[in-house]
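Case study.
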Amino acid sequence: STPLQSPTEVFQALQRLHMTIFSQSVSPCGKFLAAGNNYGQIAIFSLSAALSSEAKEESKKPVVTFQAHDGPVYSMVSTDRHLLSAGDGEVKAWLWAEILKKGCKELWRRQPPYRTSLEVPEINALLLVPKENSLILAGGDCQLHTMDLETGTFTRALRGHTDYIHCLALRERSPEVLSGGEDGAVRLWDLRTVREVQTIEVYKHEECSRPHNGRWIGCLATDSDWMVCGGGPALTLWHLRSSTPTTIFPMRAPQKHVTFYQDLILSAGQGRCVNHWQLSGELKAQVPGSSPGLLSLSLNQQPAAPECKVLTVAGSSCRVDVFTNLGYRAFSLSF
Amino acid sequence: CDEVIRKRLLIDGDGAGDDRRINLLVKSFIKWCNSGSQEEGYSQYQRMLSTLSQCEFSMGKTLLVYDMNLREMENYEKIYKEIECSIAGAHEKIAECKKQILQAKRIRKNRQEYDALAKVIQHHPDRHETLKELEALGKELEHLSHIKESVEDKLELRRKQFHVLLSTIHELQQTLENDEKLSEVEEAQETSMEADPKP
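After joint prediction, the assembly is written out as follows.
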């Protein structure tokens, strides 16, 4: 870089230095990746361009960046036409087709009915329920709100958590939602009967609780009868029906994102590496990324773009690492 | 004009070969026609024949080379097709193997899930044994309650017997007291009668 930089360039460089990427979402066509950061910006990267054989340095920069929210973008999900983003108490919708043409105007914005209208609590997690075409939002007000995507009305408010909610997961077979929060409990909600059907207080189990880290549940993933959760307590695999912890994964650092993939469990958190675990508790691989801490993992499994099937991870830096093969980091995209 | 030059270069680019030989042949033919003596003519004729046979030899060679090239082309075509087939076959095999890998991973995942649950179950005691223990405890309980019953019965019987005994004693006591009283009264009557004779 040239020694004399304009103030805007200096500002941008400083911004990048202090950037944290909280959320990612893959476009319905599978060729683009959206990343949301702590400044409320969303950047769209072209995965197909960056992965192609003629990729240059510019292909690793965003195709378009826009200011989406006033606060950090904590969570994003994509439907088959829209990108939904949330952070500062509101959820906004954008049309993927429009964003790709650089027309970044929000389609709509909604705010769930909060109990107090003074303080607007942040939204930490979004979850799509395709069977009923609705969106679930959860965050600082300790409730799960369901919103019908067609009408925009808020249909249910699930109460039970005693502290804010960090993460959500959907159990496909039964229409059940799992939520994990600061109060240390993983709660299962049945969407049809609108009740809490099961509660697992992770910190009460000796095998996995780590009081020095706290009891918060930072990440959650589910695969039919099994659930894996982590955070303050150790990363643990649970058998849901019997509410028993079956495997404790020996990882000291609190994990902030976890997902099931084929026969493995991938997790990331404090620390550079993406950890690959086998269900038996063995650490199969630890692959370092370029950020000192990781907050989100995204697996692009969109059937329309099998050539863009990559794992992208992001966290406390302005970079999104792209793993073409789970074994190593191929390259990084950057804001 | 270009085309002619090209064709000529193609046919005999190096200039030191057949084209020159044919030109020489034509020149020597003309010389032979214009030759004077028979000897000269004859020697010229011989020279022409040798040049001609050289040309024929060269042509034969070229024809053979051409043939060989044709056959080599055919051969390459065949090999090319075979390689194409084997590439397609390899692609299919790769797709098949990928499917098998996915299947194997699913199986491994199921096995590991099974193992995880099995480990937890192992921690709990065997159902058989627990049932047996339950049975044994049940029997003991029954036995003890029998004992308790029989002891209670004994106690009841003794209590009753004591009660009968005590009430009999009491009755006897009463009877004795009554008798004593009666005899006292009788004695008193007798002494009063002796002290006070009837008039």
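Observations recorded in class. The mean pLDDT of chain A is 90. The radius of gyration of chain A is 19 Å. We will return to this complex in the next lecture.
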